[in-house]
Design goal:
- The protein has helices at about 1-10, 20-55, 105, and strands at about 60-65, 70-75, 80-85, 85-90, 95-100.
- The chain is α+β, with helices and mostly antiparallel strands and about 110 residues long.
- A hairpin with a 2-residue loop joins strand 3 (about 80-85) and strand 4.
């Protein structure tokens, strides 16, 4: 009998969550995701687009595939790399991972 009266007492009190608290929790979750995921990703995208936009003839670059080469031509969204003596390959500019200091390829 003791347990039955406790069960009725719990059912009688309404424990519905406050809608304002729920909205604040969702807002906090969104802010957390923004600062941890979205903002750093946008920063990396901006840095990469600045890198791609600043490419020039003669730059030594590393491609996302790991290939090293020297930029010989820029053609719109593509670039031509000299990867060996008179061996040229065409890549999309977005495949550039990093620009190396001058003379890096000869040092390797």
């Amino acid at each position: 009998m003791l347990f039955v009266s406790n069960a009725y007492a719990e059912a009688a009190g309404s424990n519905e969550p406050n809608p304002i608290f729920t909205i604040i929790m969702f807002g906090g979750l969104f802010l957390f995701m923004y600062f941890i995921v979205i903002r750093p990703q946008r920063k990396r995208q901006k840095e990469h687009s600045d890198l791609v936009g600043s490419l020039a003839k003669g730059d030594e670059v590393v491609m996302t595939s790991g290939m090293l080469g020297k930029v010989t031509k820029l053609e719109g969204e593509y670039l031509v790399l000299e990867v060996s003596n008179n061996q040229e390959l065409k890549f999309q500019k977005v495949a550039v991972h990093a620009v190396l200091p001058k003379g890096t390829i000869k040092a390797i």
